[in-house]
User: Fold these one by one.
Assistant:
Number 1:
Amino acid sequence: MVFPAHAADSSLDRLTELGDRIAELAAHMHAGTHRLLVMLAEFDAERGWEVGGHRSCAHWLHYRTGFDLGACREKVRTARALTALPRTSAAMAEGALSFAKVRALTRIAHEETEAELLDVARRSTARQLERFVRSWKRFSRVDEQEHERVLHQSRTVTIVPDEDGMYAIRGRLDAEVGALLMRAIEAASDALFRGERGDPDTPSPAQRRADALGLLAERALQAGFDVDGGAPLSGGRAERYQVLLHVEEETLAEDAEPGRSNLEDGVRVSAETSRRLACDAAVVRVTTDHRGDVLDVGRRTRTIPPAIRRALEVRDRGCRFPGCGLRFTDAHHIHHWADGGETRLDNLLLLCRHHHRLVHEDGWRVRWPVGCDPEFESPRGVTVRRPMVPPDPDHADTLILANEERGVRPDWRTAGAEWKREADVEIDVLSRAFEVMDASED
């Protein structure tokens, strides 16, 4: 079958026009993404995400927008970095740079190198720019010969409580022991925070390592230790390694004045911390006389029986705070058992350590209306609940109109790459960029 020439020309013109409209709309989307990043940087700087009880700005963005959590971390990191790169920010505001390009630029660009790198970014594809960034890292790498020589005789670790009731850890380890500990902490941190190593948001890396160290200790005690080729520690020997909290029953009541509440070594913890720990722990009731002599020691019982804990894991599948979902959790009594609350599924939910602390030490409240999801109310009266209906999506015409009102009018050429192949990249451009970057390293 033979088509008329004018019909083929018409089809080609239509496809060309369609392609131009796609490229123009993409540039508008780049400009819209810039606006999102600017707003996100402002929201993050004012720590607006804390109002809703979220652990970081990335977690808030993940919860409110539906972006993948990893993508949210990159958006927050890029938004922060973009505030110090005015030329890059302006180019993205015009729709000339995609988020992928800006994300790559913000990893290496600073005041001295921004102009040269921006020229490379405008003319290259996102893939070429990523390769360029990786190459720069290899070219600028310096020999890392900072390892200190630690003598075996100087190894030491001290763990002592300070005047605030925290524990201070200081030590020097053999190189292989220190490396082993770091790898274990990294593994625990990845598991505890879903691979959030490198997340610029709170908790800070140092805080994540502290939480990971606690997880290491818990898991080590659960697994036991193989000694003398025999069975893992158990029974009386394992009891030596439990963390004991001594608390008066009246202290656990919500409205009572705090009485005794301390760890085995005498370190005081708050009454509300004791209530949090008692939510999901083994409890032994000890009866004493007025002189403190022990009269009776009851049986050890779990505040959350194993069967109920398994049911909780099946039902909740992680922290129930909206937008969280971490799998390492404590079971929380909505109405505390010390205040008469029952240990039943309708009075229990799983919370991660961060949100469990919010509910106890930070004064948040939990409500669970019948037939609905749990609601969390902050001391400032902000209620956080799972959205019932997602917001209506913006239309492309709305985005284009908003950009045009701000004076942004990209066309089909705005975001395109000049270099299509690696061979198209001009050597003098690369040379100038590397010269600038090498000078900045010096």
Number 2:
Amino acid sequence: MIVADTRRRWTRAQKQAVVAECSIGKAPVSAVARKHNIAPNLLFRWRRDFGIGQSAAREAFVPVALPALAASSTSQDRPIAATTSS
């Protein structure tokens, strides 16, 4: 029984060429993936592996520091105890 290997092998240069097509003219990833007959998620993975498109995602999140809550003895700040009715 002979089983054909259907998995394609891509060299690093080939991957870089396909990824470069996404950045040239801002072509959509889905269009480039369709052109090369690959899944868009594979192209997104290659972009991530080459470090392309990550700087914008890192800049989108800003660290936030919240002030510590002061301990208060007022009844409004205490949690309400659950009551059961019989």
Number 3:
Amino acid sequence: MLAGRHVVLGVSGGIASYKSCLLARALTEQGARVTTVLTRGATEFVGPATFEALTHRPVLRSVWDPGHALDHITLAQDSDLIIVAPATAHVIARAAQGLADDLLTTMLVAATVPVVLAPAMNDDMLAHPATARNLEQLRARGMTIVGPEIGPLAEGPSERPGRMSEPDTILAHAARVVVRSEGTGLDGKRLLITAGPTREAIDPIRFISNRSSGKMGHRVAEVAWERGAEVTLITGPTTEPPPVGVTVVPVETAAQLAAAVRRALPRADVLIMAAAPGDYRPTTQGETKRKREGGKTWTLELKATDDILLTTKADRKPGSVVVGFALETGDAVSKGQAKLTKKDLDLIVINDASEPGAGFDVDTNRVTILAKDGNRWDLPLTSKREVAGAILDRVERLLVP
């Protein structure tokens, strides 16, 4: 999302500025052109040589540097985004009052591009009424405030916010701000996305499940949120970290997944059913662990679970877009086409679990997307994030009135 963008990274004088080095590196690795602006206080914690090495670009510190008399205007109006991380209480107060007494604050006063602030300070400083008022003023002016979080501060543990958000979190918000500023068909839309496997208990110890990792659904949720959507992710057991900004609803069984979908579906503009709910569950569940008995066999009786897309069809919001997934083995496209019709879907995403790099627990996928109107798109083997983008591109087209 940030590749090719010009991002100005403002760093003020707080201990959290060490994280700004990681942020500068991450922005550069994503392909952004990063111009770092350091306040005088920031140079007491980190030096300009560090940022120059990480970004491969000169670092700016003063409005008085020869040859840089108009930097506060060109950076404020010709870049794609300004990030201030950390944003100390002092910088926040100066920005709220419209002061312009150094390069960073002068640039903020002149800014016509989106601005993201990542506050970082002592928890008492953050809780001070003046700081709260200043942050609210900046938010009202359209600036995006990221964090701060609860966690250890320089002076020790804290149970109140004050710690600067991690670089990955700031990056996710930065991408969302840039994309929304350019317009997106998902901005303000409510997306309901499911991900991961389900588990059906045999007894208190054992369960039956499948190999779904939840990666595909999580990538769809991440990209949808970056495109401005309000995203709810219902996910079965997975080791994937919760996506930034997304409302996560954990479930375990297919019945719990169905119930969660049914509750959220009436408000959803889009349902993307990327989960792999179990097709069967044991007819009975043991209350205690069944002991192994020598060489004896154990016959486990299973019954089919409900088909969530079919049983929740009546709960869909009128005019909503519904996307299903079909993970098959052999003749995958024909099987996917049948599901598209049977389940009354707008799109179905099909892949073959037997194909290397396109099944469970990998970061890549090769899919075919079929539409109700007969269109077909065959995607090459690519990252699941790229697949997520391709799916959402087609969802956006369907949402256009």
Number 4:
Amino acid sequence: MELYLVRHGETESNLERRYQGWTESPLSDNGIRQAEQTGFFLAGEGIELLYCSDLKRAVNTAKVIGSSCGVQPEISPLLREINFGKWEGLTFNEIEAAWGKDISLWLDDPFRRSAPEGETLGQVCSRMYTFLENLDSTIPEGARIAAVSHGGSIRALLFRVLNLDNASFWDIKIDNASVSLIQKENGRFKVAYYNRTQHLESGNYSEEIIDAD
């Protein structure tokens, strides 16, 4: 099995650097273009199945990708972004001004702490890994699948598969419309690469290769 994880295209809230979480925000013009370019890339990879978060920015990105790949996206709430609770729609500076102590505690231990009325990263890791395990138990061996999700959620799944220490979580970068590839070989999942953006801008190549050893 090969799972291509795609972050949705750029949104208006991304441009304003706001914490989106489960709050809806439309794709920007650039985000639509990014979705089109990602669709062309994935069509060349021979994608057979396509999943997406139920948040509109992921659904709309998936529809564009599906048009290029000739597949219809299937919605899964498991692929949602982390729920930021009362911090949603705010910038970091706005959050810091109102919840300075709380956001400091969250940044120190996001796996056990959450935004007020939000989710912990531990919870996001669990539901994203559940999505991966469900695929593994139902999808034919060797299938090529794409899943459109969100920056925090994709980072959480990569973190889990790579079995990193908690402090390394913030080292994983996931850009808008980037592609990350998880493969299953010899009975185990591995990350082949993450944050591939070559398909977006020929002059702005970025890809993190994981050493299989």
